[in-house]
Amino acid sequence: MANFDVASYNRLGQVFHAANAAGVILTAVGTVHTGLVISNSFGSGKKLILCDACFVPTTVPVATYALGIAIGFSPTAVTHTTPVSVYNSDGSGASTTAAGKADSSATVPVATILARLSGYAPTTPATTGGLSWQDLIDGKLVLVPGAYAHFTFVGTAPTGISAFSWAEVPV
Fold first, then answer.
1. Number of C-alpha atoms within 13 angstroms, CB side, residue 111?
2. Which residues fall within 8 angstroms of residue 106, CB to CB, at 6 or more apart?
3. CA–CA dist 94, 124 (Å, integer)
4. What's the pLDDT tens digit per position in 79-122?
5. Most buried of 20, 44, 55, 79, CB within 10 angstroms?
6. What sign for the dihedral angle of Cα 146, 149, 150, 152?
7. Which of 47, 78, 59, 36 is nearest to 166 (CA)?
8. Residue among 22, 49, 48 nearest 34 (CA)
């Protein structure tokens, strides 16, 4: 258990979240991504401390896959193809102050790498258990200015709804 107190950051208005509104097929590591991508612009002056990540498949898998989070870094800007709204996690609505950006489709300047495995999907979910995951990252991944993260997979591409939450702190 980490010593990351999300509630304290949230009381200060420094916790944000974003999610897809519908199922999106995930892409593997690379530079063009669909699913959910969060990014921190190079000059933001903030670090994005990842709190948790969630994924819920919207289709039954046709083959097995491992679900994970990939990260990358570049001072060159991310191309925000299909932006997703970022919300304040204190319940006050859409954020106008978050440094973190979210997209259901984005192109990143440098290919990402698999940084964290979050789950595994069997092809028999009805007999082996549910397929939704919540990865309590709890500050173990931090996006410095210029960094980005997205859900990825190894195996067969899943389709689902993704969500990230993060705290923002000064560099």
1. 6
2. 33, 37, 39, 78, 79, 80, 81, 82, 148, 150
3. 38
4. 999 999 999 999 999 999 999 999 999 999 999 999 998 888 77
5. 55
6. positive
7. 47
8. 22
**Identity of residue 158:** P
Token pair for 159: 């389709």
Which pLDDT belongs to residue 124? Answer: 62
CA nearest to 102, candidates 74, 118, 80:
80
Measured between alpha carbons, how far is 53 from 135 in angstroms, rounded to an integer?
5
Q: What is the largest CA-CA distance in the chain?
A: 48
Q: Which letter does DSSP use for residue 100 in this model?
A: E
Q: For residue range 28-74, what is the model confidence (pLDDT) as tens digits?
A: 998 999 999 999 999 999 999 999 999 988 887 778 888 999 999 99
- At 23, list the tokens: 């199922």
Query: What is the torsional sign of CA 86, 90, 92, 97?
Result: negative
Cα torsion angle, 6, 134, 72, 19, sign: negative
Task: Note if the pTM is more than 0.85.
Answer: yes
Which residues lie across from 52 on neighbouring strands?
Answer: 165
First and final C-alpha spacing in the chain: 24
Residue whose structure tokens are 């300047």: 109
